[in-house]
UniProtKB/TrEMBL annotation, chain A:
Keywords: Methyltransferase, S-adenosyl-L-methionine, Transferase. SMART domains: MeTrc. The keyword Transferase applies. This is Chemotaxis protein methyltransferase. Pfam families: CheR, CheR_N. Residues 1-273 form the CheR-type methyltransferase domain. Gene3D superfamilies: Chemotaxis receptor methyltransferase CheR, N-terminal domain, Vaccinia Virus protein VP39. S-adenosyl-L-methionine binds at N70, T72, R76, E114, D140, N195, L196, R214, N215. InterPro entries: Bact_Chemotaxis_MeTrfase, Chemotaxis_MeTrfase_CheR, CheR_C, CheR_MeTrfase, CheR_N, CheR_N_sf, SAM-dependent_MTases_sf. Methylation of the membrane-bound methyl-accepting chemotaxis proteins (MCP) to form gamma-glutamyl methyl ester residues in MCP. It comes from Ancylobacter aquaticus. Its EC number is 2.1.1.80. One of its GO terms (molecular function) is protein-glutamate O-methyltransferase activity.
TrEMBL record, chain B:
This is HEAT repeat protein. It comes from the Bacteria.
Length: 277, 208
């Protein structure tokens, strides 16, 4: 790939996803590009790029899937889960609610470890769980991982932070190295595709009490980060919370949210609705 | 099990009609103004309406969404509006405009910078120095060196030195050396010049 081809490809990725790849990531981009050229039988950059731009046989989706990072595990950064049950949800239920539904969004959800972790954590650690209808939704731009999330089959590494008791309670071992989530739990979580920089897509998911949006905004440039933050703001109910990854700070992205410091985590809150004066 | 799957209503999209958005932009509810402002950015005539709205908008979130939207769309009309705001009496409007201009592609501002650097208002010249920081080193160095040579306002001189210290090239060294003599009686400016010269020389040495 020459300089011009690399630049055109990176511009394409940026326009479609908000992800920024610079010369420093050239090897990463070239590897994935080569994989897709091989998979589609394309013999040159020009022929593959034409195929991509025309979205022949859903190539855009396949291409974006190849660029996402999906390494995660259950109970990752569980101090935020502790914060969810100890601070965020108790605050969400303080005010009178029109209904008994609590909505939580895990985006990006990768292969499902995060939304399933939220579900298990709440069943185990939030005493009020039975008094509410808890709706957990997992979304990701990578449609391939959503299929894996729905299947709910995980390897040993993904379960390394879970106790033997929790594994026995919520999983069925399928072979020496794999465990499948029990049907009740798998069927309780919804999964959907979403592009965080497309407002029409994020709005379709409705408004949430809590959003987990961890370790994705770091891949965006400033402008896309702001757009994603604005979209997520719309997806939060007034007073709702958003949790970012440990190295991310919403304060550096947008002034839309208030910072909330709790004993287990720093999270960001959409202010309650108010009128001027 | 308390976990449920439901089909939930989407978040309301903003109105698609400019007149309705104009009305929403004057709402007493900041969230409504925020959503209207966000939608107007991509609409014909939207930038002009937002420019008028900024003059009276007090909510920082609404202001921010207007600035970030103008920066994102990066149109000449948006740039013109922001450049005008550099003269605002309101410091937060000036800094919001400056940040948004800095986020725009450098080539969009390149043609306007020399004019701003000759502006009769020293505050505008000072803010224009910040915009030069986002330009290619060679262009910024030339602009900053020219300005420093003719500038008498100490704060503007300090701003040029700060930019030169960060991205200046060797062609600025003679101007900096002449300025060192000119500002010998000002310890702060003399120090700023010394720093700029050192940084440029260090960059030169490390590039060899």
């Amino acid at each position: 790939m020459n300089e011009d081809e690399f630049r055109r490809l990176c511009e394409f990725i940026y326009r479609r996803t908000g992800m920024v790849f610079t010369e420093a990531k050239r090897y990463y981009v070239e590897r994935r590009m080569a994989d897709r050229m091989l998979a589609t039988g394309s013999t040159s950059f020009a022929s593959y790029f034409a195929r991509l731009r025309s979205d022949v046989r859903g190539e855009v989706e396949q291409f974006i899937n190849a660029f996402t990072v999906n390494e995660t595990y259950f109970y990752r950064e569980d101090h935020q889960l502790q914060c969810l049950s100890a601070d965020l949800l108790p605050r969400r239920i303080l005010r009178p609610r029109a209904n008994k539904t609590i909505r939580i969004w895990s985006v990006p959800c990768s292969t499902g470890e995060e939304p399933y972790s939220i579900a298990i954590w709440l069943l185990e650690n939030w005493p009020q769980a039975d008094a509410y209808e808890i709706e957990i939704l997992g979304s990701d731009i990578d449609t391939r991982v959503l299929d894996a999330a729905r299947a709910g089959l995980f390897g040993r590494r993904a379960l390394m932070r879970l106790s033997a008791d929790l594994i026995a309670k919520y999983f069925e071992q399928t072979d020496a190295e794999h465990w499948r989530l029990i049907d009740d739990l798998r069927q309780s979580i919804s999964f959907s595709p979403v592009n965080l920089v497309e407002a029409a897509e994020t709005r379709a998911h409705g408004a949430f009490d809590v959003i987990f949006c961890r370790n994705v905004l770091i891949y965006f440039d400033d402008a896309s980060r702001r757009t994603a933050a604005e979209n997520l703001y719309e997806n939060l109910l007034p007073g709702g919370f958003i949790c970012l990854g440990h190295s991310e700070s919403m304060s550096r992205i947008s002034p839309l949210f208030d910072v909330c410091r709790y004993s287990d985590a720093i999270v960001y809150q959409r202010p309650m609705e108010r009128a001027d004066g | 099990m308390p976990l449920v799957r439901k089909s939930t209503a989407a978040v309301d999209a903003p109105p698609a009609d400019v007149e309705e958005l104009k009305t929403a932009l004057a709402s007493s509810r900041p969230d409504e103004r925020w959503q209207a402002a966000r939608a107007l950015i991509d609409m014909p005539g939207g930038i002009a309406l937002l420019g008028a709205g900024l003059a009276t908008e007090a909510d920082i979130r609404v202001r921010e969404v207007i600035f970030s939207g103008i920066a994102r769309t990066a149109t000449p009309e948006g740039a013109a509006l922001l450049l005008q705001l550099l003269r605002s009496e309101d410091a937060s409007l000036r800094s919001g405009a400056l940040d948004a201009l800095a986020a725009m592609p450098a080539d969009m501002l390149a043609g306007r910078l020399p004019e701003l650097l000759y502006d009769e208002d020293p505050d505008v010249r000072l803010l224009a120095c910040e915009l030069a920081r986002g330009m290619p080193s060679e262009d910024a160095t030339q602009l900053m060196a020219d300005l420093l040579e003719r500038e008498s306002e100490p704060n503007v001189c300090a701003a040029t030195m700060d930019v030169l210290a960060e991205i200046g090239g060797p062609q600025a060294l003679p101007v900096l050396q002449r300025s060192a003599e000119r500002f010998a009686s000002s310890p702060f400016l003399a120090f700023a010049i010394e720093i700029a010269v050192k940084r440029i020389k260090t960059t030169l040495d490390s590039g060899r």
